[in-house]
Amino acid sequence: MAYLVSHPDEVKVVSKRFGMGATNLDRYLELDGYKAVQKAISMGADAIINEVKASNLRGRGGAGFPTGLKWSFVPKQSAKPKYVLCNGDESEPGTCKDRLIFEHDPHAVIEGVMIAALAVGAKSGYIYLRGEYRYLLEIMEKAVADAYARGFIGKNIFGSGVDLDIFTHSGAGAYEVGEESALMESLEGKRGIPRIRPPFPAVVGLWGGPTVINNAETLASVPHIILGGDEWFANLGTPRNGGTRLFCMSGELERPGVYELPMGYNLKKMIYDVSGGMSKGRNLKGVVPGGSSVQILTADEIDVAMDFDSMMKAGSMLGSGGVIVLDDQMCIVRFALRVTKFYQHESCGWCIPCREGTDWMKKTLTRFHAGGGVAKDIDNLKYLAENMLGRTFCPLGDAAAMPIISYIQKFRKEFEDHLDGKPCPYEKAAEAALV
Amino acid sequence: MADVTITVDGKKLTVPAGTLLIEACKSTGIEVPSFCYYPGLSLQGACRMCLVEVEKMPKLQTACTTPVAEGMVVTTESEKIKQARKAMLELVLANHPLDCPVCDAGGECELQDMTFKYGAAESKFMDLKNHRDEQQWSPVVYFDRPRCILCYRCIRVCGEGMDVWALGVQNRGTSSIIAPNKEDHLECEECGMCIDICPVGALTSGAYRYKTRPWEMKHVGTVCTHCGDGCKTTLGVRRADTGMEIVRGDNRDKSGINGDFLCIKGRYAFDFAHSGDRIQQPLIKHEGKFVAATWEQALDRIASRFKQVLASDGPTAVGIIGSNRTSNEENYLLQKFARLVLSTNNIDHHRTADFPAFASALAGKADATASMRDVFDAPAILLIGNNPTDQHPLLAWQIRTNVRLHRAKLYVVNSYPIKLRRQAAAFAQIAPGSEGSLVQFLAGNDAAADAAVTPQLSREALSQLREALKNEKDLVVIFGSELRGNDVTALINFGLAQGAKFICLGDYANSRGAADMGLYPDMLPGYAPVTSATSFHEDWVDEIPTSPGLNLLQMMDAAKEGKLKALYVVGSNPIARYNVDPFALSKAFVVVQDMFLTETASIADVVLPIANAYEKGGTFTNTCGDVQMLKKAGEFAGVRNDFECIVRIADRMGYDVHKLVPFGGGGTRADMGQSRGAQSGEADRHAVWLAERNLEPKMSPYDPTAMLDEIQRLVPGYDISRLGLLSGHDEHTQLVQITRATGSGHPELVLPSNDTLFTSGTLGRYSPTLNSVMERYAAKPADKEIAAD
Amino acid sequence: MKFSDQLEQRFSTMVTHYPTKRSVLVPMLLYIQDEVGALTDEAIHEIAQRTELSDLEVRNVISYYSMLRTRPVGKYNFQVCTNVSCLLRGADDIFEHCKKKLGIGNKESTPDGLFLLEEVECIGACSWAPALMMNYEFHENLTPAKIDELIDGLKKKEEQ
Ligand SMILES: Cc1cc2nc3c(=O)[nH]c(=O)nc-3n(C[C@H](O)[C@H](O)[C@H](O)COP(=O)(O)O)c2cc1C
Ligand code: SF4
Ligand code: FES
Q1: What is the distance in angstroms between the Cα of A399 and the nearest Cα belonging to chain B?
Q2: How far is Cα B700 from Cα B697, in angstroms, rounded to an integer?
Q3: Segment C10-22, tens digit of pLDDT
Q4: Closest by Cβ to B173, choosing from A355, A364, A392
Q5: Res B186 pLDDT > 60
Q6: Strand B626-630 and strand B731-732: pairing?
Q7: B734, B354, B752: which is closest to B523 by C-alpha?
Q8: Residue C54 is nearest to which of B169, B172, B786, comparing CB atoms?
Q9: CA separation, residue A76 to residues A46, A121, B46, B159, B390 (Å)
Q10: Integer Cα distance of B88 and B162 in angstroms
Q11: Distance CA A219, CA A115 (A)
Q12: Is the distance from the beta carbon of residue A349 to the nearest atom of ligand 2 less than 6 Å?
């Protein structure tokens, strides 16, 4: 359903089988399918973990935590069963990459889950998809059923003596459920309220058992690492940032779409070369490089390498790979309002700073954008965000606060231009819908 | 667990590993603010008030969820922390209605207190607050969403604490709202714990809301007058036309055996005290109708008729029925009155447990009864019969909390699937009525199992249960009135073999006290047989009649036959309780002391209006044998307490009250009343000194503490710490009997009250709150149990 | 309450996938809603019984998830994403157009109960913005003309 694009600079690893009919199991097998898991079986748990560690694979869900390291935290011995949980909740605004993986290469996710399970000694894996992805759930369900039918999963996989079950699971509309501990709650049939940490999921996770939670793209990368080797994968990217990444280019671009580029690829090139630059004759105003939760970069801050460390240095974050390009027709206050409205709507409501903070930011921005702003609102917004930052129960509060701080810091003038009862001066339609 | 040493604000302290930082701070006197943290309930980390700095951690950490670690260096006060707390308060207050001037919690509000301390006075926000109208969830629970700060304490105390799970959170984000279990209302145990635990005024009680301000009340800590558990309750009283009206009951100071627990009766059913049905004047029946009389007239009438009957028909023609809700001092006095003033052993009360069999089986064993506190930390508990959730709410709370917090092993044996089975490690649902057989089986009689097994409960299961129990050290055995006589003996022998402690469950606030104080026709206080010589015989000036008297039912029969000519009923309603034909008493002269015109009072010849336990001093003994002090809280114009009435009747009958009540005497009298000379002012100073220590000058024959002196001196097991008692502590008595009473049991007289959570014998019928709740549930029967999470 | 054979089948397989019964709750609620049209009191009670939860607990869960509803919605549920990536590509105009075309506002249904219009958060179509979801179908790279075509097509289908 989703349209595929391509560019010569792309290095296709995870997207290698996109558009090649790999949902069909036979086709998948022709394309090296289920070879990695067999190789992994022969390697043994420790070797798998070492391989993934050495590949410098870092979590594609947003935080960029080294995947091999995460797996190594799972205790070898455990009284309770261990689990692998694939995070396919993909709800970060600007992000639409896991969707392509599920759509075009479902077995790669299964294989990734299997390898993770072998690495940590889990006997069951769950693939959680956001509720809106119903058509993908159907694809995944079929893929799982096909794999069972061939005996790839279930009892004694590939004659290894290991039993391994994989199940799919649907969400029902909640961004917060993408947060790993809320994800587990949701899978357990509860409200998506995050858990107190520590203990971390690797030690106490699903139903109390040690659990590895990884993003779908992270897991889909694993079979390629096993087959291609850690060195090969690590060398695709930059130091400490191995491999490639699916970047979701959105905004008024000539060729928006999801491109697989090496880690560390230049952001400016990503916009002007890969995505064909701005469309409709617009100019670039700023870039939100890693999903709506990260700080904005101004037009002159985008000549940077897109990997976790470089983005951190640039004052933003690589996040989920959603590159949102703002053009000069977008009012930053309007943008801030839409972002805040999202977090206000998605805050689980558990903790005071996030619940109340997002609500008051939304109220203030709504009035402000409609022309009812007063000078102290700008500082108040910043004060609110700064007082949420680092004090909420889970990172959603930070995700709501960080962008706002950056908008005000970098585009204060645009905020000030709204003062004195002025209607939004940056929008063609001054009636900009009140939300 | 091993200890760890940490540094908090420069102070070194050593606490057990695993201690939460917030508790560690508290232990050294450093208060870390919190809303959502509540000791004993699950951790939330939701309010973010408890943020502190921990060295090497970049972000502020929540002290409520962080366990201490060796070498941890913590700062609890800094600019950064102050700002975090202030901002948190600004955020809660942003949407708070700030209606403190009319809010019930005003003056006792944790949000107010914290705002006062950390300041968030300046409002940064100018947009509209979210509003929602207040909702009534039940006769006792009201909810005001705008005031709610979502600390989730109510949900936890209802679910984890009460095992009721009637509250939840609905929606998410800023629309999150605490929700009741039945769409717009609650179906629950109506305990009010949610209201009590609410740090702000979001949950308020139908009984108290908008009635008064906390600082306008006087707060008196006393003991609940309903079931046999003896919860401490703090009554808020204020002036009313009829005296001091009780407007609130709670236990926020957590000082009693019940911690912060109270059930609906303890919390709200004090309202009988101001029921419009209360009698305010003595009544004398004249040509079949009650006519108001003065106290003098009524007492004269009683005394002269008692004397007449004694003179004409002798002491066997008079009888007394005492109460389960009067104080130990009153009960003791009453039986002494019977035995000395009336020279009769015709005295009894509504028995709700076979305490004599219990005492007899434990004869000579000190330390064999468990206190209510023991139930909170016993490693293992065996519960046979009874349904504590309904009949002993505090006991049920103690059991649940113990299982939850200390992982105690609970064994439940019952012929019904009682709710506590949900906490049980093993639950045996035995055949109806086979509790006795089960106990015989435990005690080693294998054949007795036949009666207890059911298609669902095999013999093997019972054997396993017996084996498991035998391996439990420090077991507490709790049993209901299903077990009587020999079954009690068998159970106790089984338990004693492994050092168990016991609790025998009786139903009312002072059932155990009534039994301990000798309201029996064949036993003196301390279950001493009337037939043998005891210390009472030595101590009391007059002769104690030695032949056993008539029990309650025998007295009724004797009255019917015209043999019992006078009956003195103190705080009891035998006509209704024992379903006695009211005409049985038509030939006898009947005196009733009561608050209300009960079935028994309405057939009396003289009725004296009486104070209840909230309106007087004295002591109660709960069903476990824990003694606590009553303190006068309420006041109702026109009434007197039972103690005074008994003394005055004795006096009018020409009996020397010094022989009844050991008042006066000793050294204190000399310095009283001198207004001149060297000793002047001494009396006042002495009175002040006594009052300061909660002591009372025992100068009056109406002083129950004078009676308590004698009880402590003469009743075995009651030589408890007086200082502890006076300071409001519960003191556990020992059930040590002088001699084993033989054939005294009369198990057939034991009649459990079968109260539910919403009933309380005759008394409960006069509580508007209990009535309104009962009406609600009668109209709409509650679902069966709610599943635990 | 009985569900369709297919759903019953799904339920009985699904409960075997987890160590606790309630784990089936979130997806099951969605499936029930798909079949029944909404999570009615009866449906809530039924699933509560099956998962050994109180009705309240099930309601608590339902009210958390934005896709779960206790009241029936339109047969065609138009969920227009207005989040940032779509916003940048004219989602406001798209939403306005839907309003006009259907003659209803946000979270409203047409009088015949056929259409419901709703503004929603990011649906994962950012690179193909602006986008909407109709029932579980994605419609992307939207233009007013595409919307007209879609709505007219559905109307025509209903007329037949
Ligand atoms: C509010 C919030 C939402 C999140 N949403 C997602 C998501 O939709 N998908 C995802 O993979 N990770 C999401 N994450 C990150 C997860 O918590 C977790 O870090 C990730 O799934 C781990 O996988 P990784 O190490 O492979 O990245 C979210 C985190 C937060 C705080
Ligand atoms: S920061 Fe707090 S309220 Fe916000 S989503 Fe996380 S836990 Fe919920
Ligand atoms: S007390 Fe620690 S977060 Fe509420």
Answers
A1: 15
A2: 8
A3: 999 999 999 999 9
A4: A355
A5: yes
A6: antiparallel
A7: B354
A8: B786
A9: 10, 7, 33, 35, 48
A10: 30
A11: 9
A12: yes
Task: Give residues 148 to 177 of B whose Cβ lies within 8 Å of C.
Answer: 165-172
Rg of chain A in Å (alpha carbons): 22
- pLDDT value, residue B738: 64
CB count within 10 Å of CB B132 equals 12
Chain B contacts of C63, Cβ < 8 Å?
A: 170-172
Does CATH number 3.60.21.70 belong to domain B283-352+528-668+683-732? no
Which one-letter amino acid corresponds to residue B393?
Answer: P
CA distances from A143 to A28, A104, A131 (A): 10, 11, 18
Give the H or E element holding residue B57.
none
Residues in chain A: 435
Delineate the domains of chain C, giving CATH numbers in brackets: 5-62 (1.10.10), 76-159 (3.40.30.10)
Token output for B247:
């407007």
Band of the pLDDT at A421, cuts 50, 70, 90?
confident
- Check CB contact under 8 Å for A1 and C82: no
ipTM greater than 0.90, yes or no?
Answer: yes
Pocket test for ligand 1, best of A96, A215, A346 (most atoms within 8 A of CB): A215
Q: According to the model, what pLDDT value does residue B509 have?
A: 97
Report the separation in Å between the CA atom of A70 and the middle of ligand 3, taken as the mean of its atom positions: 28
Owner of token pair 């087959």: A227
Q: A225, A244, A4: which is closest to A116 by C-alpha?
A: A225
pLDDT of residue B671: 42
B192 three-state secondary structure: coil
pLDDT value, residue B703: 87
Task: Give residue B658's identity as a one-letter amino acid code.
Answer: H
Q: Is residue A6 part of a domain?
A: no
Domain B355-505 has CATH 3.40.50.150: no
Q: Among residues A327, A344, A359, which one ends one of the domains?
A: A327
Which of A327, A360, A389 is the last residue before a domain boundary? A327
Whether ligand 2 lies within 6 angstroms of the CB of A393 is answered as yes
State which H helix or E strand residue B15 sits in: strand B11-16
Domain count, chain A: 3
Q: Are residues A223 and A295 in the same domain?
A: no
Largest CA distance in chain B: 93
CATH code assigned to B3-77: 3.10.20.740
A264 lies in the same domain as A342: no
- Domain check: are A83 and A54 in the same one? yes
Extract the tokens encoding B25: 């701070």
How many Cα atoms within 13 Å fall on the side-chain side of residue B425? 18
Phi, psi for residue B66 in degrees, rounded to 5: -95, 115
> What amino acid occupies position A360?
W
CA dist., res. B145 & res. B180, Å (int): 12
- Is residue B476 within a helix (H) or strand (E), and if so which, with residue range? strand B475-479
Angstrom distance (rounded) from CA B85 to CA B96: 16
Q: Is B183 exposed, middle or buried (0-12, 13-18, 19+ CB in 10 A)?
A: exposed
Q: Determine the residue type at B754.
A: N
Rounded Cα distance, B662 and B521, in Å:
24
Rounded distance, CA B470 to CA B493, Å? 12
User: pLDDT tens digit string along A58-105?
Assistant: 999 999 999 999 999 999 999 999 999 999 999 999 999 999 999 999
Q: Assess whether the previous peptide bond of A199 is cis (omega < 30° from 0).
A: yes
Tell whether the model's pLDDT for residue B10 goes beyond 60: yes
Helices and strands, counts by H and E, chain B: 27, 30
d(Cα B336, Cα A14) in Å, to the nearest integer?
94
Q: Rounded to 10 degrees, what is the CA torsion of C65, C68, C70, C75? A: 150
Tell me if C124 sits within 8 A of A96, measured CB to CB.
Answer: yes
- C-alpha B77/C-alpha B51 separation (Å) is 10
Structure tokens of C10? 């799904």
